[in-house]
Amino acid sequence: MSLIQKKNKILLVEPEFPIPTKSKNHSNFLPIGLLKLATYYRKKGNKIKLNRGNHPAGFYPDRILITSLFTYWADYVKETVQYYRKIYPKSKIEVGGIYATLMPEHCKEHTGCDKVFLAQHKGADACFPAYDLVDVDYQIIHGMRGCTNKCPFCGIWKLEQKNFKNIKQIKKEICSNHIIFYDNNMLVNPYIEEILEMLAITKYKERVIHCECQSGFDGRVLMQKPYLAKMLKKSRFENIRVAWDFPYNEDSVRMVESWIMLLENAGYKRNEIFVFMIYNWKYDYTQLERKRAKCFELGVQIADCRYRPLNQTFDKYNPRTKKQTSKDYYIHPNWTDASIRQFRRNVRKHNICIRYKISWDRYDPTLERLNSRKRLIQLEVKNIT
To answer: Which strand (E) or helix (H) includes residue 227?
Structure first.
């Protein structure tokens, strides 16, 4: 019997998710898991191809590894499995990722794949992503996995086992001047101070590094260790986000105000700070509007997120449609289709006004389009005359 391992032709696939072409390489949607799998299997001598969408591979694959994202995009995963099953009937098709891990039985039955892969591929997760397969000008790093919290609207604690990387591990990975951390609670990393100190002085190709944390920062940790705010600024972290996931009351208002002041004192401009808000959840429209109004008063922007249950397998919400029902997408009992749409409109208007430092009554929807700065100048001239 030969001890030489058979080399496979492996096709890695990102389904035809409803992502605009211009956003395909956005950090929120880059199939980082597939890029790590590419490196892992390349090291074993396999032939690798990445398909972002449904189209022929150019060879007949032995294995087809399909990733999945949100559970409510389950149908797109099913369509992809069916597409590749039809043109490569002899290939073994495996589905992994978020949907596959949260709803493995549904995934197996719904998509008809041969195998469902749960959670992380430990071997691949330790590999450097194969960035040569995509065209991006940034790098994604996981400084930690999992989260110390178990928020009811989040599935991270179900998807990932908690562990942290130290300064040496992260420094070894740096290969770009723009780093996006995929950490879900970065500030609880026990090595965070050493990491921030390293990032502040590290250069790549003789240029400084700029950083961003996709999931934002826990303001409560910032208050426990206020010096971290200045360390984040010194490390050139941009698009700072904090989360207001609790109800509107005097205590929470004071808390958020203290976070904003702390970040401002560290050197961040208020209109460049974002506050995460989850809507279509247990706190109703009135509470969310009070939060939004307070943020407007504080001069900060909002990063809003519409809640969907972790077992929701469809979402046909259409912002261009005037009216939809719970048959189209999930609507929390404390919300309505009308209130969801109104809150989203308010947030859009809010952010434009904060971004351009104009009052609520001077909002102009054309500011959301290209050449908005030119339009802003026109508004200034109009006001003067």
So the answer is: helix 227-234
